[in-house]
Sequence to fold (600 residues):
Amino acid sequence: MATLTVGAGKTYSTLAAAVGASSAGDTILIDAGTYTNDFATIGHDLTIQGVGGLAKLQAVAQPPNGKAILTTNANVTLDHIEFTGATVPDGNGAGIRYEGGALTITRSWFHHNQNGILAASSAGGTISIDFSEFNNNGNGDGITHNIYVNDIAQLSITNSYFHDPVGGHEIKSRARETIVTNNRIQDGPNTIGNYAVDLPNGGAAIISGNVIEKGAQAQNRTFVHLGGELFPSYDNTTLSMTGNVFINNATGGPPTLLRNDSSVGGANAPATISGNIFWNISAGQVALGSATVGSNSFNTGAGPALDLSSPIEAACFRAGTRLATPDGPVAVEDLDPGDEVLSAFGATLKVRWIGHRTLDCRRHPRPRDVLPVRIGAGAFSPGAPIRDLWLSPDHALLLDGGLIPARYLLNGATILQEEADEVTYFHVEVETSLGEATHTVLLAEGLPAESYLDTGNRRAFANGGGEVQLHPDFAHDIWKRAGIAPLVTEGAALSAVRHRLAIRAIALGHRLVNNPCLTLEVDGRVVPQLPGEGPAVFLLPPGAQTGLLHSRIFVPAHVIAGSDDHRPLGVGVTRLALDGQAVDLAALGEGWHPTEGGHR
Fold:
């Protein structure tokens, strides 16, 4: 499994070239920036990861296959990828055309396409979407949508933001199982939207923990539709709607929360509606068709304010981080637009904007992506940093002429990722004396850390405002044209910095050791290892039943430059024998994994 790189100065300049050169199981790292008409068809298992922000795949011409920017028919994982502009003559252009396999999408953005995602039927196929955003997709014809999934095994949408569909539905799913949990599904004030969730074939569906708003201009005042296009509906059809907040801002007539048109055994399939909070929806407007309605809260009035922030995290300073200013160090949360800060190059710049966001790390499916990275005082040299510095994992430091995200500097000693239930991050945008936004390097606790660069992720912050389109000057590569320095996530430059950090860590008293410190625990008691060279030998007591092998661990990402493998790995066991008879390692229980190259 190889890692391929895309971007200015990288091995490949286009994603399509990297996909064509890749093999099953490979990973493609693509730098943040705009990649115009970079179309690809993926037919083997592949991971594509945006680095340093969103990698924007923008279509200004029609995809040559008449389908989509990316067409997938394999197990494909996408992270930090933006899809926009997809159109084709038949009106069904999409950011992604799914044709089979397991498609996993995280922290990605689909907007201004004819369909955000259009999925063909695929028995056993699955689509999982997490912390992503879909908006302004559709032709205005009512049959193109933010996402449209045909007959697959499962569609799961979690922690995401769907809004402003252009005439169609927010979510349309013909999947056998549909899970919609902890999302924001909001028409907004100006969108002529349709259903929030349409399940025309039925299926087993769970809609829970969401905030779902019907906008003032909605052409269809029904929130959720079950059945109605397949007779009978799938035989597993059920619907559970619990723990949601439904807000009706539609002005064209009375709303309907659920329209149950399903048909199983000659009757509506069971639907349960309980534990929800309703705004401007009366008890008589909850269900058209059969439903079991439990205890819900009914309210009138303006309803709660809508959260318009992007679900995609951005690189930031943790609250409490001090930035250098002409008046001395000031905590980032105490700065205001118009205040002055010092760059690492000696210039005085004005703060243009400060973004902020609080994250609940306990609910995040990948805590490592948001937990703060602590750079210990003196980790680089005496006084650098002056005191412990906490950054988000993707916040970059200027080192040896390149910007290196903090996650690539973890070493398990002086630079660690810290546990936290909740963390508040800030980012600072600065401007020149002419009032123009600029990307530069600030001094955070004495270390050179990047300021905010708008790569289209301003709405990742709670105060990011409305949709931000990238300036045309960024058309080919944001980092190449606007970044203060190149992004470094691999190669000799990263290895050199990590080597210096390791030498410094040793000087501060940390050590790497080769002794795995093996111990064997048998039936709750530690059995000592017999002395001698060669394989580790333990003498088991009579009647031994269970044994646990303990060792020191290592994390590949802490000692191998460029590795993103954060698994805590124990000693590599190549052979295990009991009374001279080999034991099948594959048959062992929890904590044992297949061996990998290099005895990992």
Q: What stands out?
A: Helices lie at 15-21, 478-482, 491-507, 556-559.
